[in-house]
Design a protein that fits this description.
eight-stranded mixed beta sheet; 27 helices; globular; five-stranded mixed beta sheet; alpha+beta; Neutral Protease, domain 2; Immunoglobulin-like; single chain; binds arginine; about 850 residues; about 40% helix; binds zinc ion
């Protein structure tokens, strides 16, 4: 953790390990302060490797003894691991180490959470459990014996045998150490079964703390749906007798795909109508699917090295997005994903933390579990599928599974499969993996003699370490509409490969209106000088649901920017009237209508201004957004009650897309209503709510208008026993606070007895919310920056991973005025200068300052 000079690891330096591992036997004797881990590992020289340096990773381990072929040895120890002289041929390595899970606050390796033992090994946590070649290309069969006085003792694979105080597990599938897991505790299960497509019976369990058993049914249903879906869509069957899922309160991320023993942040699996919002249900369904899908894309086929992380993550995010599209509404899912991409990935790719989907160097791999690797990585898979077509994609995936099952692979292996199936050369396409930054795509159009010509220019601004950019392959989906709104050219995929390229559409009797980049067919910034009239036309007539939404989004952005810069006094009321007509169309999916009511976030507006060469002022952005919402509510006043009635759900609560869509629309309308009635309707909804979606949306409406004091007290009283609901209570008060109060509110809440900085969910609830309150965080006096820096410094000493991740709140610092820049730079410098700062945070702040 506290290296003097952090080392940089390069993709170009990859060499295989000198030894292969035949099998591993572990015996883990649990004890909070003195856990003993005994290992017995059969090594053999790796014929593919030259280097015979026998180095085993190991960090924060006390070595008690080591033997080779039964004879005691004395390895050379460092704080990174050990080195030892070994025989020429195969040999058996044995060792025993001691570790202290109770004092592990980094939540990496073996640690304790509310009295239960659990592990997190990806990416490099196994080295905190025992000495081992902790790299994904070393795959082995594990047998694990756990000893401890706990009713439930779990590890990977199938159960072999158990007795009073012990259990033994065997995982027949060779796996890298990052997929190792162990859980022990006083847990209860929600059991079920699944019959696979070939008729094998699988036992399913979701394990939780006593008291949470009522919150497992939805996750279980999602698990079974995922198992069926992967059989039907990808032909992938589950491969063990048992599949266990465990919920853990203290967890650095969402969840982890350990073989046969997925470990979840309890926020990503526990659900009930009373305690979870529709958004929570949808996220849980997606994460359950994501981790389950990793069994093939990640576990059966894993990564050769951590530079290849997107091989499993991009593909698995892509697969879970397909699953959600099938389970729910495909257009709604796509729009949600694009909103998220622009909110999280674009700022990353357009700032100092920009890196390729496949990075070429790192100091701390945990810093590269990013929106770029995951979400842009998934966009790259989506483009590949669009370019080759659905059938060829399916063929390529079948070949990928056949060819590489049981292997640790690279992006080259992945692309070679597509080259072999299609006969195409994907050299240029591969730039999506190596070139960082978001391409900007300019569009010009011309109509002459019945031919409509679209001319595109692509340009990617320089990013850290990459000054020159080459043209990328852009799949651009285009449709053409006649002026009366008929589709004259249905969706056509243009394949752009040059820096500048034109495409003709002939035989047209009149000038069409183009709908460009349908479905957001490539992750680019589209620069199109479309007229307001044209956007209104597309909002009314486009047959592509994404682009109808996009036209509206552009109108919203233009209107807001015009008021921020003072070009217009207030919102574009003609557009708002047109939008109201669309929103009133009861034939449209309510979820889609709710999306049309969303506005670009204040941070997104700041980025848009910055791209136009205007220095964003967070206070004016906030004021314009507030004024816009107020005007819209007043303008639509007469229609709100009727629209609200239409969103009423009378059937019992179901967390499905249909009911969730109605509630989403209802929540937007309630927020508008609150601006008109002083919160009467929101208070009534809050008082009568029988589900968390209704309760929380009422609460946020009340906070926004400053009328939530009694509701906040009632909420706390009702939910003080429920950690996950209390995370919401902490978060909303800060996220929706008036900007001038956000910092004070966050400070006050850190004094609350239920604030616990060691719990990542609680820390994120407070400081994630602060960073998300744009004008509050960017207060002119710098108090937001100072407060976040103070807490990140405190957290870094305990939990480097979560601290480093949250440092990215500062990544957009160069967008703002000189004074704010200086204050953010000072905050970052203060973090950087902290004695003993972790390698994780050091790398992040150095890149941001660099
Ligand atoms: N593989 C896990 C997932 O995608 C995430 C692991 C994140 N690990 C980390 N060290 N950040 O679900
Ligand atoms: Zn994943």
């Amino acid at each position: 953790m506290k290296d003097a000079a952090p080392q940089t690891v390069y993709l170009a330096d990859y060499t295989p390990f000198g030894y292969g591992v035949e099998d591993v036997h572990l015996t883990v004797r649990l004890d909070p302060g003195k856990t003993r881990v005994q290992s017995r590992i059969r090594f053999a020289p790796n014929p593919e490797a030259q280097d015979r340096d026998f180095f085993l990773h190991g960090e924060e381990l006390t070595l008690l003894w080591a033997k080779i072929d039964g004879a005691a040895v004395t390895p050379q120890l460092s704080d990174q691991g050990l080195r030892c002289t070994v025989p020429d041929g195969p040999f058996i390595w044995e060792a025993e180490v001691e570790i202290a899970p109770e004092s592990n606050t980094a939540l990496e390796g073996l640690y304790m959470s509310n009295g239960m033992y659990c592990t997190q090994c990806e990416a490099e946590g196994f080295r905190k459990i025992t000495f081992y070649p902790d790299r994904p290309d070393v795959m082995a069969v594990f047998t694990v014996r756990i000893e401890g006085p706990h009713p439930v003792l779990l590890s990977n694979g199938n159960p072999v045998d158990s007795g009073e105080g012990w259990a033994e597990w065997h995982d027949p599938w060779p796996k890298p150490a990052y997929l190792f897991a162990l859980v022990a505790g006083d847990l209860v299960n929600h059991p079920d079964r699944f019959t696979t497509m070939s008729g094998k019976e699988v036992e399913l369990n979701i394990w939780v703390r006593p008291g949470d058993e009522g919150k497992c049914a939805f996750g279980m249903q999602a698990l079974k749906a995922s198992m069926r879906w992967d059989e039907e869509v990808y032909g992938r069957e589950y491969d063990l007798d048992i599949f266990n899922v465990v919920a853990v309160d203290d967890f650095n991320m969402g969840a982890m795909e350990n073989k046969g023993l997925n470990i979840f942040n309890s926020a990503a699996v526990l659900a009930s109508p009373e305690t979870s919002t529709d958004a929570n249900f949808e996220r849980i369904e997606a994460i359950i699917a994501h981790e389950y899908f990793h069994n093939w894309t990640g576990n059966r086929i894993t990564c050769r090295d951590w530079f290849q992380l997107c091989l499993k993550e991009g593909l698995t995010v892509y697969r879970d997005s397909e699953f959600t599209s099938d389970m729910r509404s495909a257009p709604v899912k796509r729009i949600g994903d694009v909103i998220d991409l622009r909110a999280r990935q674009f700022p990353e790719d357009q700032g100092p933390l920009s890196h390729p989907v496949r990075p070429e160097s790192f100091q701390e791999i945990n810093n590269f579990y990013t929106a770029t690797v995951y979400e842009k990585g998934a966009e790259v898979i989506g483009m590949l599928k669009r370019l080759v077509g659905d059938e060829v994609y399916a063929k390529a995936l079948t070949l990928y599974f056949d060819r590489h099952d049981g292997q640790a692979c690279t992006i080259e292996d992945w692309l070679k499969v597509f080259e072999d199936v299609t006969g195409r050369d994907l050299t240029q396409f591969k730039r999506w993996y190596s070139q960082s930054g978001t391409p900007h795509l300019q569009v010009a159009e011309r109509f002459e003699n019945g031919t409509f010509t679209l001319t595109f220019k692509q340009r990617t601004p320089p990013t850290p370490g990459q000054d020159e950019k080459l043209p990328q392959v852009l799949p651009i989906a285009v449709g053409l509409l006649s002026p009366s709104g008929d589709e004259v050219v249905p969706t056509t995929l243009l394949e752009m490969t040059e820096a500048e390229q034109s495409f003709d559409f002939g035989g047209l009797s009149e000038r069409p209106v183009a709908s460009v980049l349908r479905g957001f067919s490539a992750p680019v910034v589209l620069e199109r000088a479309a007229s307001r009239q044209e956007r209104l036309f597309l909002l009314a007539h486009d047959t592509d649901p994404f682009n109808r939404w996009e036209a509206n989004r552009a109108l919203a952005q233009e209107s807001l920017i015009a008021s921020i810069t003072g070009a217009e006094a207030g919102p574009d009321t003609a557009w708002l009237s047109a939008l109201l007509e669309v929103v009133k169309n009861a034939a449209q999916d309510p979820a889609y209508r709710a999306l049309l009511l969303g506005l670009p976030s204040q941070s997104e507006l700041a980025q848009a201004l910055h791209q136009r060469g205007v220095t964003p002022d967070p206070d004016s952005i906030h004021a314009a957004a507030e004024a816009h919402r107020q005007t819209r509510a007043e303008l639509w006043q007469a229609d709100l009650p009727m629209l609200a009635r239409e969103t009423e759900v009378t059937a019992p609560f179901r967390p499905d897309a249909e009911q969730a869509g109605k509630r989403a629309l209802g929540s937007s309308l309630l927020a508008m209503q609150s601006r008109l009635d002083g919160g009467a309707a929101a208070q009534a909804q809050f008082d009568g709510a029988d589900n968390m979606t209704a309760q929380l949306s009422a609460l946020t409406s009340l906070i926004t208008i400053g009328a939530a004091d009694s509701a906040l007290r009632a909420f706390e009283k009702q939910w003080r026993h429920d950690r996950l609901v209390m995370d919401k209570w902490f978060g909303v008060q800060i996220a929706y606070a008036p900007p001038a109060m956000a910092v004070e509110m966050a400070g006050l809440l850190t004094e609350h007895p239920a604030f616990d900085m060691k719990n990542p969910n609680r820390f994120r609830a407070v400081f994630g919310a602060l960073a998300g309150n744009h004008a509050g965080f960017h207060r002119a006096d710098g108090a937001g920056y100072d407060q976040l820096a103070d807490w990140l410094i405190k957290l870094d000493a305990k939990n480097p991973q979560t601290a480093a991740r949250m440092c990215s709140a500062f990544q957009t610092w160069r967008r703002y005025d000189a004074d704010r820049q200086a204050r953010m730079r000072a905050a970052l410098t203060r973090i950087a200068d902290t004695p003993g700062l972790s390698r994780d945070s050091t790398e992040m702040v150095t890149r941001m300052l660099g």
